[in-house]
Design goal:
- This protein is mainly alpha-helical.
- The chain folds into two domains: 38 residues; 246 residues, no CATH class.
- The protein is 74% helix and 0% strand.
- The chain has twelve helices and no strands.
Amino acid sequence: MPTAWCADCFNLCVDELGLLIKMAYITNTAGAFGRLWRYRDLVRNLVLKDIKVRYMGAALGFAWSLANPIVITFMYLMIFTYIFPSTQPHFPLFLVTGIVHWTLFSQVIGQSCEVLVANSGLIKKIYFPRLLIPVASVLVNLVLWLAALGVYLVFYPLLGGKFSLVLFVYPLYLLLFVAFIWGLTLILSTLYVEFRDLKHLIEVALQVLFWATPIIYEVGRVPRHIQEVMILSPLAEFTIIFQQIFYANKLPSLNITMAFFAWTVVVVGLGLWLFNRRVPESVERL
C-alpha cells in the first residue's frame, strides 16, 4: 500500500513538473513574440531595405520578382502539353498550383543558410532580438511571392479553376505553410554558422525534393509502396492540400490537416529552441 501511494505521488509530481515546464515554455515563447512586436518598425525597415537593394537600378524593378515563377511555369507547361502531353483534366491548373507554392518554399529555403551570416555586421554592432533577421528574410520573400500569387489568382478561372467557399480556408493553410518555412529557416540559418557545407547540401536537396514532391504529377499515379514513403515528406502533404483546395475544390481531409499542423508545430518549436540556444554563442563566428 505505501509503495502504491509513493508511486501515485511520484506520477503526480512528474505530471506537475511537466505542466510547469510547458507553462514556462509558453511564457518564454509569448515573451519572445512580444519583444518581436515591439521591434516591428525595425522589421518593416529591414524588409523595405532588402526589397529596394534587391531591385536597385533594375528597369523593371519589382516586376522581376514574377520572372522566375512565370518562366518556370511556362517551360513545364510547354513540356507537358506538347512534348510529354498529359491526359489529366485541367493539367495546367494542377501544375501551376504546385509550382506557385513550391516557388515560395524554394526561394526562402535556398536563401535561409546565409540569413545570419549576411547580416553579421548588423548583428555585431546593434542589439536587437536576433529572431528579427529570419523573420525579415521570410517576409521579404513572402511580399515578393504575393505578387506571383496575385497573378495566379487572376488566371485561375482561365486555367479551369472555380471560385468557391472552399478558398476561404486557404489563408489558414498558407499561414501554417509560412510558419513551417520560417521554422526551417531558423534551423538552417543556425546550423550554417558552424557547418558551411550545409548551403551546398540544401541546393542539391531542393533539386531532389522538387521531383520527389507531387507537383508535376498526381500522387495517385505513383506505386502504392512509394506513396507511403512520399507522404512522409511535409512538403508533399502541403502540396496535396493546396491542390485539393485549388484544383479539386474540396476541403483537405482531417488526417492530412492534423499532419500539416503537427509538422508546423514541431519544426517551429525545434527552430526556436535551436536558435535561442545556439545563436547567442555563435555571434563571434558569424
